[in-house]
Amino acid sequence: MSSTSDEGGSYTKKYKGIRRRKWGKWVSEIRVPGTQERLWLGSYSTPEAAAIAHDVAFYCLRGISSPEKLNFPLMLPASARTGLSPRSVQNAASDAGMAMDAQLSSENSTNKRENGKEEDLNLLQNEHCETSWDGCGKSNEGEDLNISVDDYL
């Protein structure tokens, strides 16, 4: 599979069964064994979510006889099972992909919030250093100030 950007190209080689749209979304689909029918598995924000959707569909359609063909063989949900109808496979794969997208976006927003608080603390400490004339981080008695992030939450 080719891609227009280097990032997209490296991820499509890294994960099986996914590709990147021009506008940045990641998509996944899979062929139903023994037919020419393709199952659309969804559009996702991250390549990992699209890859999980592909893994769930692959497992539901073909079983675990070839774990090397899975992107994340240890991350299959407990609800994934073989012998489902194509529509049920679509639903299971879509649910797994959306759950992964939600988990990754939650982790990213938590990291951004935590990084933002650290930056606010660093900014506050730097402002203190610039305005203090009796030594940065020192009180009038010469003792070290004890400032924690919790003081500003």
TrEMBL record:
UniProt entry tagged with the keyword Transcription regulation: yes
Protein's organism: Olea europaea subsp. europaea
Composition bias, Basic and acidic residues: 110-120
PANTHER family for this protein: ETHYLENE-RESPONSIVE TRANSCRIPTION FACTOR ERF020, ETHYLENE-RESPONSIVE TRANSCRIPTION FACTOR ERF042-RELATED
Membrane-crossing segments per the record: none
Primary location class: nucleus
Family (UniProt): Belongs to the AP2/ERF transcription factor family. ERF subfamily.
Cited Gene3D superfamilies: AP2/ERF domain
UniProt protein name: Ethylene-responsive transcription factor ERF020-like
Region (Disordered): 85-153
Pfam families for this protein: AP2 (PF00847)
Domain AP2/ERF: from-to ranges: 14-73
Record's subcellular location: Nucleus
Alphabetic keyword roster: Activator, DNA-binding, Nucleus, Transcription, Transcription regulation
A cellular-component GO term for this protein: nucleus
Record GO terms (molecular function): DNA binding; DNA-binding transcription factor activity
PROSITE patterns according to UniProt: AP2_ERF
